[in-house]
Amino acid sequence: MPPFFVMSLLFGLTFGQTASLCAPSEYIIHVEKRECAYCLAINTTICAGFCMTRDSNGKKLLLKSSLSQNVCTYKEMLYQTALIPGCPHHTIPYYSYPVAVSCKCGKCNTDYSDCVHEKIRTNYCTKPQKLCNM
């Protein structure tokens, strides 16, 4: 094997995680309550991107701890609250949502992240839409 190829391979394995493309990304959340007249479209940021993962084809030969797959997840986040317009007085018209400040590649924490990719699109409005720029 040529020495350049071996050095490139070792460099890629050593520093590959730092070159991942996991970063805050703009995203629109659609929020509506049954009692309220409008759907609110909220501009926010989420963590999205590519993280280096391990090939688990040899899972019988590897330790269980080495089989974990990294995902792009929150390193630092804050919560903001928006007011949903057109709600009757007996309804709480507020919605709190996370805003990604910084991201990292790591294990998915189900306390604040959805770790399953669903094929069904659920982020849409069924009522007239209002835009909320935060």
TrEMBL record:
Signal peptide region: 1-16
Gene Ontology cellular-component annotations: cytoplasm; extracellular space
Major subcellular location class: secreted
rRNA processing as UniProt keyword: no
GO BP: G protein-coupled receptor signaling pathway
Gene3D superfamilies given in the database record: Cystine-knot cytokines (2.10.90.10)
Domain Glycoprotein hormone subunit beta: start-end pairs: 21-125
Swiss-Prot/TrEMBL keywords: Disulfide bond, Glycoprotein, Hormone, Secreted, Signal
Family annotation (InterPro entries): Cystine-knot_cytokine (IPR029034), Glyco_hormone_CN (IPR006208), Gonadotropin_bsu (IPR001545), Gonadotropin_bsu_CS (IPR018245)
GO MF assignments: hormone activity
PROSITE patterns membership: GLYCO_HORMONE_BETA_1, GLYCO_HORMONE_BETA_2
Cellular localisation: Secreted
Pfam families registered for this protein in UniProt: Cys_knot (PF00007)
Record note on quaternary structure: Heterodimer of a common alpha chain and a unique beta chain which confers biological specificity to thyrotropin, lutropin, follitropin and gonadotropin.
Family: Belongs to the glycoprotein hormones subunit beta family.
This protein's name: Thyrotropin subunit beta
Natural source organism: Atlantisia rogersi
Phylogenetic placement of the source organism: Eukaryota, Metazoa, Chordata, Craniata, Vertebrata
Gene name linked to the record: Tshb
